[in-house]
Amino acid sequence: MTSMSARERMIGRLRAAAPTSGAALSGDTQKLDQRIDEHFDSRRGQAPSIEAMVASMQAALTASHADVICTDAASWPAWVARRLADEGVRRLLLDRDCPEGAALARALPSSIDTVTFDRPLEAWKAELFDTVDAGFTVARSGLAATGTLVLAPDAGSPRTMSLVPPTHIALVYASTLHPDLHAAARAEHWSDGMPTNLVMVSGPSKTSDIQQTLAYGAHGPRRLWVVIVTDGETAR
């Protein structure tokens, strides 16, 4: 058998196995999606309660060396403001145009300045890396099984806000928690269209060398504070 005849045979098999129409391809995709859904639903069993997902989220994040607090919508700004002041933070990067950013800005003491991402990165890169102590973001949702925050960066809150400052403060609403990644993708209809990028955070930045010595902050924030807002009435 020559190499060319082997190639022709392989292409022939691929062509024979290919769907003959877009409708057939769509039907096969739907069947595959259904099988995947059934697999994860059977493994997951009964859908967990919000309380159970909050407990799982908190436990997983804590195990990954994140600081986690569960509080209500009225109390979290004061808690974050006190914690920032106690840690000696002087400059906080946030989006004042979002309700949560505005609420936190109002609660901050005068010793903490707020900075917004309102100019190209090249115009203030040195300032950002050298003088900003912390960044505040609001998560799109969370994955309870792994303690993962799902961030959808936008113009007012680009991914730089969660990656560059040494401390990252992330707020997530309990009502937006999902049991796992599959449940999030299905509930939020990721297949219908996704943002340019999603950032998934499961703890502070960490890495290890060949001797497996763990170091935090080498490739991102070395501290992660997570605020889980637990009252459903004020959740977005």
Features:
Rossmann fold, 236 residues, alpha/beta, 8 helices
General description of the model:
- By secondary structure, this protein is an alpha/beta fold.
- It folds into 2 domains: 7-45; 46-234, NagB/RpiA/CoA transferase-like (Rossmann fold).
- The chain contains 8 helices and 12 strands.
- It has helices spanning 3-17, 22-44, 50-63, 76-86, 99-107, 121-131, 160-163, 181-187; strands at residues 67-71, 91-93, 113-115, 134-138, 141-143, 148-151, 167-173, 177-178, 199-201, 206-208, 214-216, 223-229.
- The strands form 3 sheets. The chain has a 6-stranded parallel β-sheet with strand order 1-12-7-4-2-3, with helices on both faces.
- Helix 4 (76-86) crosses helix 5.
- The longest helix is centred in the N-terminal third of the chain and has 23 residues, at 22-44.
- It is globular, with a radius of gyration of 23 Å.
- The mean pLDDT is 87.
Main β-sheet: number of strands, strand sense, barrel status?
A: 6 strands, parallel
- Which class best fits the helix and strand makeup? alpha/beta
Spatial strand order of the main sheet = 1-12-7-4-2-3
Listing every helix as H and every strand as E from the N terminus to the C terminus, the arrangement reads HHHEHEHEHEEEHEEHEEEE
Q: Which parts are unreliable, with pLDDT below 50 for 5 consecutive residues or more? A: none
Average pLDDT confidence is: 87
Percent range for helical residues?
25-40%
Instruction: Report the count of strand segments.
Output: 12
CATH superfamily of the largest domain: NagB/RpiA/CoA transferase-like
Radius of gyration: 23 Å
What is the overall number of helices?
Answer: 8
Counting structural domains, the number is: 2
Q: What is the class of the largest domain in the CATH system? A: Alpha Beta
Overall, the morphology is globular
